Amino acid sequence: MAFALVDAPARSPAAAAPTRDPGDAPVATRSRSRVATGHVVLAAVTVFSIFPVYWMFATAFRRPEDSLSVSPVPSPFSLDNFRYVWETIPMASMLVNTFVMALAMSVSQLLVAILAAYAFARWSFFGKQVLFLLFVGSWLVPFQVTMIPNYLLISQMGLLNTVAGIVIPNLCSAFGVLLMRQHMEAFPRELLDASQIDGQNSWATLWKVVLPNMRPALAALGIMLFISAWNEYLWPSLIMRQSNAVVQIGIRGFLGAEGNNWGAVMAASGLACLPIFLIYLFLQRYVRDAFVRSGLK
């Protein structure tokens, strides 16, 4: 039985080629345009944020007679404003006092946040939610409401005009407790159970297992608490009677005394910002990791 072989009709090159989705190219183009637009917006925001800081240092490095110049580059370059500030006000002692105050406040707030967050995340006890809401609620209370009671308490304790008088009412940060609780709740329960099986108690588990794996979060929170304490102005101005006790009060008094000497004022402000820049420069990797990871998974 014979079968006739019929040749299939030849396909044209256009028909043989795979069809291309007409929307592919526009989607890629739109994606690249969105990325470019995002980069432009971020660059503009960055310049807008950095320019005041740059202008502060540019004014500080000008000659005193050129402090009102609008040139973006200080020319000629001069250190006269920094010499004048260093010789006029006790800048070194103010920086040391402010550093001690900010370090004591940030370390105490970080320690309380670690212990409180570990308790809220690890255990279930009566009144847990109510106590946590009280922590969060204290964060929402304006400082001006508790300012007078705290001042009376510090006065009765005899701690006026001391660094301890600034630190004691700020031993706890509700923001720190809230942030550390979120990180500790995301900590793997398997590691905690394994530590308990190995015979570690809760205290040893916290310091040997939990905290070593949360160094980015601890560094980020510590930097934020330190910067907040360093920038504190209202409470130290109430407690400290000397105008040159801490750097914020000293710069405010220096501004009132110098009047229009903006070069010297900017130099003093630049020296006050320098420790914060150095701390962030050395710990920026931990801050970036904390925001990227946002807790352990």
Automatic annotation (TrEMBL):
Domain of life (superkingdom): Bacteria
Ranges for domain ABC transmembrane type-1: 95-283
UniProt xrefs under InterPro entries: MetI-like (IPR000515), MetI-like_sf (IPR035906)
Protein name stated in the entry: Carbohydrate ABC transporter permease
UniProt xrefs under Pfam families: BPD_transp_1 (PF00528)
Record carries keyword Transport: yes
Organism: Rhodococcus jostii
Keyword Cell membrane: yes
